[in-house]
Amino acid sequence: MRRRDAVPYGGAVALLLALAVLAARLALAPIHAAPNAEACARAYATARTHADTVSTDLRSFADSAAHRRRRCGDLRIATVDLTRP
Fold first, then answer.
1. Which keywords appear in this protein's UniProt record, sorted alphabetically (predicted)?
2. Binning pLDDT at 50, 70 and 90, where does residue 78 land?
3. Domain of 46?
4. Considering the entire predicted model, what is its pTM?
């Protein structure tokens, strides 16, 4: 097999390897959940950095009134003073 014939295979192998690494990182990532909306409000109150706030935005909780899962980010405007430094 000549080098020119192997190039497409090398690209395919690199793509499959990248997808495998991404899938492994997603599978091993921590799952964050809050038990209720009050826990979301507490998490926002203790957030000290922008990364903490974004992490809290992505948490989910079971909304018993709507009978579905919601994100804490849905509640941020109602529970957090966005003007604080």
1. Plasmid, Signal
2. low
3. 9-72
4. 0.52
